[in-house]
Amino acid sequence: MSHRPSNLAAICLGAVTAGSLLTGTAIATVDSERGAVHTPLPAPARGVPWGAFLGSGPEGVERIAQMQDWLGGTPIQVGHTYLPGNHWSDIEGDPFLLQPWAEWRRGAADRLFVLNVPMSDRNEDNVPDEEVARLLDKGAAGEYDDAFRTLADRLVALGVPDTVIVLGWEMNGTTYTGRCAPKPEAWKAYWRRIVGVMRSIPGQKFRFDFAPSRGQDAIGWTECYPGDDVVDIIGMDSYDQPPGHNFDEQIDQPFGLQHQVDFAKEHKKPISYPEWGLFRNGDNAEYMRRMLEWIEEHPPAYHTITDYCPHGVWDCHENPESSKVFREVQSARPLPEPGSPQQADCLTLDLGPWIESLFGSRRLCIRFSWREG
User: Fold this and answer.
1) Predicted TM-score of the model (pTM)
2) What is the DSSP letter of 153?
3) Nearest to 365 by CA among 2, 68, 98, 67
4) 3-state DSSP call for residue 240?
């Protein structure tokens, strides 16, 4: 909660760099009222790129800065969005949707762009299993190559050739047209075909994330695994819902969190959590803390919390206890207590490439603080 200052009593000057936030380096500030130099608590070290799904289009990009402010300046390094799957033209990647994300990704070297890509049109139209099996056969035979070739061309042209592609996500379920259970061998052949087409584009550096939902669902997700040569990351979408009434069950259930970690280790792949968050178990602070601890104990290549109701913690007021836990853990600096000095927004100055070469950022952040009374 912000309010207007009644007395400007101190001005604090701090150089805040992206590198210092990531490594936990403490930044000294000067209190002009007392003439003392203070070293605040270091920002938490976060070697794992993380983010939140905040919207599919340009609004999702705009909300990144707002969520960062809510977290006291913690940098969000992962931008995550989804291609719609109503028509094949959607899967080709509309430049209007992709352009803002590409611009955001190019804004800093340590950012990561994650894009969920459907394997078929009519992706959420409840297509029957028989038709899904026919679509998978057609895809494996190369009938839909052009759509994925076009998508790859567009991503490279937009300057995001290192995009992480979450292809055919939650394939072990029953929701999407690009699901595995109706014909697993055809599904694996189709995945391999898509990866081959997209990797054939000059300049590409794509990584492909195989991301089932936690648990068995319609089929054990290991039966859908298409091979180490066409998978770069073994992900998992893991929401707080049954099966898994508590976090221990989510770890230990068949095809659960521990199974993912063990399977990835066996195949010498990093893990990821492209989607996670609250769901049918409600506002669950214990889940939130345990999931963040799990991520700390088993560092993924990246993770992104889903931040809309009922899953979210920032833009969903239905989950105050979980929101408090997330904010405490992820904040870059201690959150202000009631009656404590308040901080205004940061005035940023560009100091040029020499500073950037030393610290990983070329910006100087001047912050003004004041005390009530």
Assistant:
1) 0.79
2) H
3) 68
4) strand
